[in-house]
Amino acid sequence: INLSTNTSVYFSALKLSPFSTSNSKTLFIGSQSGRLYKIQDVNNSPSTIEIGSSSFPTANISSIDIGISEQEILVTFSNYGVSSIWITLDGGNTWMEKESNLPDMPVRWGILHPDDSNFALIATEIGVWKTSNLYEENTMWIPSTSGLANVRVDMLSMRDSDNMVLAASHGRGLF
């Protein structure tokens, strides 16, 4: 499938929009060089637009999550020495950097709460961190330990039925 991204850099993150219909699917893809694309009608006649920011680091996009609409998009980067968390509230027209008080570490995954996108969880090199003020100017991240050690966490997944979160660690199992 030619997605017309005009890049030969590998894609590192994919997110199928939860707001896609059976007739029209929207796919978000991020690259290892920090470029983010939105592909509309991916299963019929794909239409691709780049929605990332020129302020994004030239780094590996590790995850993409969609909030309560396709206007709210969370993007994470998994490199040291870069701003690792970005959010848009207008579908990619403007982006806000949200790393704030986090230590310099890779962020491997990010999820927005399905009922309140102001609440987010991130999987990092040293465990899971959370914030309940993502949209505020001074976002504050705190470790979310709840039985989880300070271990590398590679992925987070939230169960739709009750919003239970599963954290996949590197070498320590699932929490």
In brief:
By secondary structure, the protein is mainly β.
What does this protein look like?
The protein is an all-beta fold. 0% of the residues lie in helices and 38% in strands. It has strands at 11-16, 27-31, 36-40, 47-50, 61-66, 73-77, 85-88, 96-97, 107-112, 120-124, 127-131, 142-143, 153-158, 165-169. The strands form 4 sheets. It has a 4-stranded antiparallel sheet with strand order 1-2-3-4, with no helix packed on it. Strand 6 (73-77) and strand 7 (85-88) form a beta hairpin. The N and C termini lie far apart (37 Å). The model has no long low-confidence stretch (mean pLDDT 92).
Main beta sheet: 4 strands, antiparallel
Mean pLDDT equals: 92
* Tally of separate helices: 0
Poorly predicted residue ranges: none
Summarize the helices and strands and which ones pair or pack.
Layout: E1 11-16, E2 27-31, E3 36-40, E4 47-50, E5 61-66, E6 73-77, E7 85-88, E8 96-97, E9 107-112, E10 120-124, E11 127-131, E12 142-143, E13 153-158, E14 165-169
